[in-house]
Model the fold of this input.
Amino acid sequence: MDALNLTEVSYAYPDGIRAIEKIDLRVRTGERVALVGPNGAGKSTLLKIMAALLFPTDGSVEIMDEELTKKNAERLRRHIGFLFQDPDDQIFMPTVWDDVAFGPINMQLGADEVEVRVRDAMRMAGIEGYEQRVPHHLSFGEKKRVAIAGVLAMKAPILLLDEPTANLDPQGRRKLMKILDSLSETVVLATHDLSVAFELTDRVIVLKKKKIFDGSPRDLVEQADVLTEASLELPSLLRMMTEYREKSGRRFALPLTVEEAIKIVLEKESRR
Done:
């Protein structure tokens, strides 16, 4: 079963501006996919279409092998957990507990099941002990974790994450990356940060209103023309190793991790 299947999907805003054009995209169950591209590339719009929050102007969307229509949209949305870029768009209840419990309660689950889901989700998100705190008095990073807990409590099989690490300080970013890396659900995340895409996913789709690349991170880092067209910059480690490869004359695949980079350098040293 495919988690998501988009065929020839396009979307135009009411003023006629085209946000995305003729996107074909199949996401397998359990797959982790990153949508990357510059601002205005259509990443958030595409995520909202996948979440049945927007309907395509043209083309079709299937969620869990069922074609999306306006009649079944509410039911199909139950398969989706959506994380907005700004947590203030997502958290609105008087306490953290109320916020995380909002989704399960609206699924008409019993009180015992709601409590189990909320406690499990808060533990996974690293916000145990926050139950009675006021969400809007929290830091931005803490709000992100509350929003994620709310998504996790729904136990949706498909998670769609819009810029999950945006505007976080380094410590908050690392904590959130650890949470996201532990997830077992199907994940599609939108980001402009290639280091996030490379660390959390094994498939990267580059958007610039149209799909201009679909493949592995290892393939993308060698596609200088695609990176330039999409105004994407490699992480600092990869930029350094690219320059090292050029100046040393050595031939090797660009590393995606610090460990791989160290291995390449040490191999050179051992030959001296």
The longest helix spans residues 111-124. The first strand starts at residue 2 and ends at 12. Residues 104 and 114 are 6 Å apart (CA to CA).
